[in-house]
Automatic annotation (TrEMBL):
This is GNAT family N-acetyltransferase. SUPFAM superfamilies: Acyl-CoA N-acyltransferases (Nat). Keywords: Transferase. PANTHER family: GNAT FAMILY N-ACETYLTRANSFERASE, LD18367P. It comes from Methanolobus mangrovi. InterPro entries: Acyl_CoA_acyltransferase (IPR016181), GNAT_dom (IPR000182), NAT_camello-type (IPR050769). One of its GO terms (molecular function) is N-acetyltransferase activity.
Length: 181
């Protein structure tokens, strides 16, 4: 069966939709993204279509014209040249609350690995927090492993967990199915 969404890189023209999508999922993050550093506007400015990175978005093929995120159902943000020239960092990942558990973030992350792998990137880094079991299960199932934990980093009892994955080692049974090359 054909997926109901396609995956593409964002451009400057997507600024508003990207910003609205991050606002939609803001409070799913701990602490909310709007409360970190320069907040959501700075995150979009720093991450949208720059020489160092961009977002990949999953968009519904059939969109409702009243949808103010223009059909975005998932998004992953990456920064190249993280710890070295051959590594990158996932700076954002979320699926629209009404489209979770449909494999959208899995496909976004697999597409990102493929895309970065073609640019000689060998390792991807990211972090999450200990009270986010969905993300922990998600990343571990995708083959990321925790290499460092900062205790109480986000408040009492809430740790930051740092993950990495060597994408130069092919994973078995990725079952990748993407349609928008
Ligand atoms: C974490 C998140 C991105 C997962 O997105 P998603 O599109 O729903 O995930 P997928 O459908 O691709 O799930 C792939 C696998 O992840 C795991 N997973 C996803 N959601 C899960 C949940 N709520 N509980 C346990 N495991 C979960 C499952 O193992 C799943 O595989 P399965 O369906 O074969 O069991 C999503 O829950 C989200 O947007 N959360 C809020 C924002 C966030 O926490 N982002 C990460 C910050 S670091």
């Amino acid at each position: 069966m054909d997926p109901i969404f396609s995956i593409n890189e964002t451009s400057e023209a997507d600024y508003l939709q990207v910003r609205r999508f991050i606002e939609l999922v803001d409070t799913d993050f701990y602490p909310p993204l709007s409360e970190r550093g320069g907040g959501i506007p700075e995150r979009v400015d720093a991450g949208l279509d720059t020489p160092k990175g961009n977002f990949l978005v999953a968009r519904l093929k059939e969109r409702d014209s009243s949808d103010h995120t223009d059909g975005i159902v998932g998004m992953v943000g990456y920064t190249r040249n993280w710890k070295s020239d051959d590594s990158a960092y996932i700076n954002f990942l979320a699926t629209h609350p009404q489209h979770r558990n449909q494999g959208i973030s899995r496909e976004l992350c697999l597409r990102l690995e493929e895309f970065l792998g073609e640019q000689e990137i060998k390792r991807i880094y990211l972090c999450t927090w200990s009270s986010n079991p969905a993300a922990i299960k998600f990343y571990e199932k995708l083959g990321y492993y925790a290499y460092s934990v900062v205790l109480d980093d986000r408040g009492r009892g809430i740790n930051t967990i740092y993950y990495k994955k060597d994408i130069s080692i092919p994973m078995q049974n990725n079952n990748i199915r993407l349609d928008s090359r």
